[in-house]
Amino acid sequence: MKQTQKTLSQQDMLAMFEPVFKTESKKYRKEKGVLVRKALAGEAIKTVTSDGLETSNTAGKDDFIIKNLTEAEEEYIISKKKLDERYALVEKKDATYSLYEPTGTINALKLTEGLIKKLGLNESFWFIASWGEKMVARKSDFLVLTKEKEIYRIARKEFFETYELC
Q1: Within 10 Å of residue 78's Cβ, how many Cβ atoms?
Q2: 81 Cβ partners below 8 Å, 6+ apart?
Q3: Are 55 and 155 in contact (CB under 8 A)?
Q4: For residue 70, what is the DSSP state?
Q5: Distance separating alpha carbons of residues 76 and 56, to the nearest angstrom
Q6: Strands 26-30 and 163-165
Q7: Angle at CA of residue 9, ends 44 and 15, nearest 5°
Q8: Do residues 13 and 151 make contact, with C-beta atoms less than 8 angstroms apart?
Q9: In which region does residue 113 sit, left (phi positive, over 0), alpha (psi from -120 to 50) or beta (all else)?
Q10: pLDDT digits (tens, 9 = 90+) for 134-165
């Protein structure tokens, strides 16, 4: 039986994964648009993917909610700055949502069984996301390392529904 593993901090994640990103990550492009709406200050969002609860977050006054165009239609919070850096407005869809297209690329790393074993992690583990809440990561998911040195998870199914290799 696997022992319980402590929740890893962002610093733990960076120390563990940043060297691996340098040699094993690949560049991907998000190919699907997203729906975006203005968040209400204090609005709580639970990000739920096809494999369950991923994380939660609470919006600030200038934040936005992104709804991915995946089967799970998972939602997450993004700052105005990150929205402007990562997405471009396509059109207003209705009174609530606007369609945005992704811009740029990401470096992503697949959590293989070998990598998980090499790092001494369980096949499913928790870490603290950059917004201060717990986020799950599982074997076959993908981790992203941003230029701001933040690591977050994208569930395997949703990754392949939205990203393509560059």
Answers
A1: 20
A2: none
A3: no
A4: S
A5: 8
A6: antiparallel
A7: 140
A8: yes
A9: alpha
A10: 999 999 999 999 999 999 999 999 999 999 99
